[in-house]
Amino acid sequence: MSDQALIPRRPWNGRHVVLGVTGGIAAYKSVQLARDLTRLGAVVDAVLTASAQKFVAPMSFQGVTGRPALTDLFSPEGGALHIRLGREADVICVAPATADFLARAAHGRADDLICTTLLATRAPVLVCPAMNDRMFAHPQVQANLAHLRDRLRYRIVGPAEGALAVGEGEGPGRMLDPWRIEEHIGRALGEEQPFAGRSVLVTAGPTREALDPVRYLGNRSSGRMGYALAQAAWRRGAKVSLISGPSHLNSPEGVDLVRVETAVEMHDAVSALIPSADVTVFAAAVADFRAAEGRDQKMKRGTEGPEVSISLTANPDIASETRGQRKPGSVAVGFALETEDVLEHAAKKLHAKGFDLLVANDALESGAGFEVPTNRVTLLSADSAPEELPLLTKEEVAEEVLDRVAARLTTSA
Ligand code: C5P
User: Fold this and answer.
1) What is the pTM (predicted TM-score) of this model?
2) Helix 178-190 vs helix 27-39: angle between axes, to the nearest 10 degrees?
């Protein structure tokens, strides 16, 4: 998660996370996880097993969470510590989860603080396995995982493939990066109606229109607003497809990412998915024009002369052209980035493109628009007065937009 995104915000803010840490080398990443969750506003109680303390010190967790790290089932707090933790937890996440922990948890053992807490909770439980790839593939480890997933309804998060500890393999076994685990914790905390199980389609980023084999027409869109919307909709429990032009951002966790380059490719991808979408958000900054003729050779200074003219042809307006394919009762959200008379132009777009909601902002205002992590937007709809929001991060804007979408989905469902 980017540094700007690490502010107290939904759905982590004010929620109680019990973070179990067991004895694997990936435990060093859990300090980052505890720190990020705390910065997102969560109250984090780190619970370390004896073997976790061979890899990381309780003091490290204490330093980043501002709370005592817990290590002892028989602590001075008395035998009720696991009961209190189990009751207060909004979510329990065990990261890393070793093979030994998986075996003990699958058998309902109560021989340390984290396993005992698991028996005493009704909160959702996430388990993030991390171990050598041959150990992970062992049939008994797989059987324990299947039991935790199918019988106890624990959410198994990861592992990923990639380099393991020195001298080990490269198969599945690596703990997911902390930001991905943070998103899974966010989903466990944030799943709610009317998004749970609904299909959400988001377009994001710029498009690239080739001028010759090496040059293109593009724009300054980073994709951040659309990516934030896709990730937030997934956290609320939706099935999300993100159709993105070229962007340097990480693929959002849990989201089905469809990469495209040109407006025509984006149009085709939207056209294939929009009939089944309950919500469509058009956050992409689509190039209005593309080169009328393709060139298969690079334009050169010597052969082109001092002036070059490129003739352009209009791209499809994706939102308008796919309007007739929208699912009945679905909600369509558009964006309008303007440089003058923002509300007037935005209101025209709302009607012309048949949006239910339009998110308008002024590209010239500082802290709004392209290439910045924040946005100052006004929300427009056909049936209510424009609503001006304060300067917010794009992640916060995404939550505000989804709240308005939720109200419409509930009434149209
Ligand atoms: O570019 P314009 O300001 O008209 O874009 C308004 C809305 O229409 C945005 O939501 C944008 O994603 C969408 N759009 C589109 N296809 C285009 C241009 C814009 O879907 N070719």
Assistant:
1) 0.95
2) 50
